[in-house]
Automatic annotation (TrEMBL):
Substrates-to-products reaction catalysed: ITP + H2O = IMP + diphosphate + H(+); XTP + H2O = XMP + diphosphate + H(+); dITP + H2O = dIMP + diphosphate + H(+)
Xref: Pfam families: Ham1p_like (PF01725)
UniProt: substrate binding residues: T128, R129, N130, E131, G132, K133, S191, F274, G275, Y276, D277, K297, H302, R303
Protein family per UniProt: Belongs to the HAM1 NTPase family.
InterPro entries according to UniProt: dITP/XTP_pyrophosphatase, ITPase-like_fam, RdgB/HAM1
Full protein name: dITP/XTP pyrophosphatase
Subunit structure: Homodimer.
Binding site for Mg(2+): D190
Textual note on the cofactor: Binds 1 Mg(2+) ion per subunit.
GO molecular function: dITP diphosphatase activity; ITP diphosphatase activity; metal ion binding; nucleotide binding; ribonucleoside triphosphate phosphatase activity; XTP diphosphatase activity
PANTHER family the UniProt entry points to: INOSINE TRIPHOSPHATE PYROPHOSPHATASE, INOSINE TRIPHOSPHATE PYROPHOSPHATASE/HAM1 PROTEIN
Amino acid sequence: MTNKIYEYKDDQDWYVGVWDVYGGIYSLIKDPLDLEFMDLARIFRDEENGFPITITVMRWSSNFRLLSFIVEILNAEAGRNLEVIQRQGALLLVENGQLLHVELPKEGVDVEAFFETSKVRETLLIATRNEGKTKEFRAIFDKLGYDVENLNDYPDLPEVAETGMTFEENARLKAETISKLTGKMVLADDSGLKVDVLGGLPGVWSARFAGVGATDQENNAKLLHELAMVFELKDRSAQFHTTLVVASPGKESLVVEADWPGYINFEPKGENGFGYDPLFLVGETGKSSAELTLEEKNSQSHRALAVKKLLEVFPSWQSKPSL
């Protein structure tokens, strides 16, 4: 027994747990929890110690989050190999290929949709052909019980023109169009650089600021030219922006967005990254995005912040019934 304290906390959920003898679930919120804890206690019960976890719930919005928190402690402390899988709004508790428990939403699930495939895990299609980006999303959504594909798995799909005037419009175009064509759940993103003194430009035109087919070097040169008469760094404030849209047939699309604040430097710095990274000074650090390691960038960037927001709301969105 380690007595190690575990904690999960975001804007919507907050749990504290400890591996203990004769534990239980204690809630500090008014609304009752709707997980079937009697069934779970039977599954997790240790003959010697009973239900071996004490958990205090300070905030709660997601059954998936709470059940995953319990499973995390059990896997770490009891050597279990439990996995929580979302399927059509239901939660499946699986261990070594064996289904131990099914948690259904109050409104139930569509029977035909639930049993339409023999695969236990659902698939999320990322609207990109970039394998590096796909690898990042695969690592994230594997923990949520999803297999991840990208557009390279569907070579016959047409390219979706990004004709929107906003990041959300472009991300919606990609996600919702591909979801309709494939019948699958699709995640799309649109990202770019917004410079305040330029009224938010280059914005959705970031990749083609210097013209269609422009190189990163040409886009950077164009940006420096546009800011040539802005002599104070404080006046060169900017944000990298990302909008993520998840679309699924019969559901209202899920939209999250995030900004990474900083400034535009007077000259490029650093050899890493791509796009405007050599010119973008991160916050007040004086360090360009191109001077960060990939790990450092992925822990704080606009895309990282957007994904964090997505993970906070995705389980509750997925559990909502179709329209």
